[in-house]
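Lab meeting prep.
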Amino acid sequence: FNQPYFVCVDQEDNIIVSDKLNHRVQVFDKCLTFKHKFGQKGRQPQDMWSPHGVSADSRGNIVLANLGGETDGVGHSTKLQVFRPDGTWVSTISSDGDKLNLPHEVAVTEDGHVFVSDASDHCIRKYRYM
């Protein structure tokens, strides 16, 4: 790890950890045995940049909040992403019209919504993701 930031447990008792400065997610079983990791720093929709909050839904999908950042004058968007349990990128959740500034923690609901704390705007935001 390089600054493990947030952790959640899925319905199969896997432990999912956002590894902020490695720009990835690591997954362990309930005995803390490493299973796999996914993600990399980059500019593509599936790439990560300082992942923060992480949550898993009842289907095993992983919802991740990315802080975003800037390198060489190029900005990388703050975003919410959805991944399959194996780390395959599914989608980016649109926050158009209600932009995230500093997403921190995320929580998902059974009816396909995600709640995100925005530490910069001092609020909780709600988006539909499924």
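Slide two material, second protein:
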Amino acid sequence: MSMSDQDKTPEHSVVKKDVSPKPYAESDESPSPKKARLDDKRDDSGLNDEQGEDVPTKSKKERQEEERQKMQVLVSNFTEEQLNRYEMYRRAAFPKASIKRLMQCMTGNAVPQNVIIAMSGIAKVFVGEVVEEALDVMKQWGETGPIQPKHLREAVRNLKKTQSITQSTKYKKQLFHS
């Protein structure tokens, strides 16, 4: 480069060569099997392959925010009865002291707090399944009104038939000893 060429271009401007990776369609070479496998793994991780551009997956915080917004929309469209039922569901919980006492009695050991919380959640889900089945039983029998013990007993029988509930004989009370 001569001195006159240097004077024409400003010192602060730099000509950069385009080094961005080209998609396979534009490049002369086809992807190797190893590159194809890596690209397949990237597609499974949530990157957008439709337009051939990489869109990173959402962060945990973004997903939680999105879920919260979806839940807000859902709750805002509830009827009065549905809203009352949802509020009762959210407030309902098994007393942790009772769950702890029951689990310690069953295992004979001290039970950590996180296990107690998990078990109370599992118990809440179980009760929900039994109540749903009891409502189905009421519908099958053509009855209306509140759930009665006969509906709950039939619901538990149905759940045992479908093996949604496993029967434990280890802790079953024996009424008569032989």
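Talking points for slide two:
Residues 1-49 have pLDDT under 50 and may be disordered.
Helices lie at 3-8, 33-44, 60-76, 80-91, 96-107, 113-141, 149-161.
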